[in-house]
Design goal:
lyase; 3-isopropylmalate dehydratase small subunit; seven-stranded mixed sheet; Aconitase, domain 4
Length: 195
Amino acid sequence: MKAFRVHTGIVAPLVRPNVDTDQIIPKQFLKRIERTGFGPFLFFDWRFDEAGNPKSDFVLNQSGYKGASILVGGKNFGCGSSREHAPWAIEDFGFRVVIAPTFADIFHNNCRNSGVLAIVTSQENVDAIAARAEKNPGYQLTVDLEKGTISGADGLSIDFEVDGFTRRCFLEGLDDIGLTLRHADAIADYEKAHA
């Protein structure tokens, strides 16, 4: 997993409540066994019409949000089935951060394991960020994990917290496999002793 300390990026506002994993990555795209290649299918049914043409009214199809790497969502973001493919698609599309008032628990954990920083903040803060991004497409924020701040050049400043374990994993670039590999010598010693 790529380490995360400070990230500056364009904000894409998608403040809809109860965005579920079926909307994030529809089931017909779940046949891959790799973690990559899901980005083109992110929000597929919202991004494209039945003929496969981009819907111009969907935020990620609008020019001001091209290259966005910070997604702002509504409450209960990532609800539904527990598929890991949803944060894989978000990460593969280019998002490093998702900000919402609440997340489904399993989705939140899957984000950590996928290298997507899921930040919980108040609805008021989400609305303030979304309003700025909607008014000024291309609006950028800086997320500083070490300081626990979200800031904009316009003076917006929001403090946030993530649990210590998640913070450590992101700062050090450790997913579950990376954490396990830190104990490779102890594991090898145990296996030798119990062979």
